[in-house]
Write a structure and sequence with these properties.
mainly beta, Lipocalin, 2 domains, single chain, eight-stranded antiparallel β-barrel, 54% strand
């Protein structure tokens, strides 16, 4: 009689592959066989909705938070929070001005291969995605 685990080997192997893929899904290969986590941390100049501004991002593992400022008649201050997986960063943004106006929505960024900036889109909470939001690392 075979030990119980012999008949389960295909399932055990599949489980190990799933676990490995979950472990490394947020990483990038550097081409040399080593694994590199994409870094979003830094300062950026950005353009969105025809307006330009500055952004500072910090990163703790896959969680990225940041602050940004731009001028649209008045100074607008915003925050964003997202999760990075590989070169993709997705999350939410919120902003307000000194007069009590505020708004919020979603974003999706893709870090350029060389890390020099990102291309992405944003939307309001109730809106369809598609407005551009692109940045260049300072």
């Amino acid at each position: 009689m075979k030990p119980w685990y012999i008949s389960k080997l295909p399932f055990l192997a599949l489980g190990a592959l799933v676990l490995l893929s979950m472990t490394f899904s947020g990483c990038l290969s550097s081409g040399g066989g080593s694994v590199v986590v994409a870094s979003w941390a830094g300062e950026y100049d950005f353009v969105w909705y025809g307006l330009s501004g500055t952004m500072t991002l910090t990163q703790n593992n896959g969680t990225v938070t940041g602050e940004y400022t731009y001028v649209d008649g008045t100074t607008i201050d915003g925050t964003l929070t997202g999760e990075a997986v590989g070169r993709t960063l997705e999350g939410t943004w919120a902003e307000s001005d000194d007069y009590g106006w505020s708004d919020s929505g979603f974003f999706s960024f893709e870090l350029l291969e060389d890390g020099s900036g990102f291309v992405g889109t944003w939307s309001y909470v109730e809106g369809a995605p598609g407005q551009y939001w692109n940045g260049t690392r300072r």
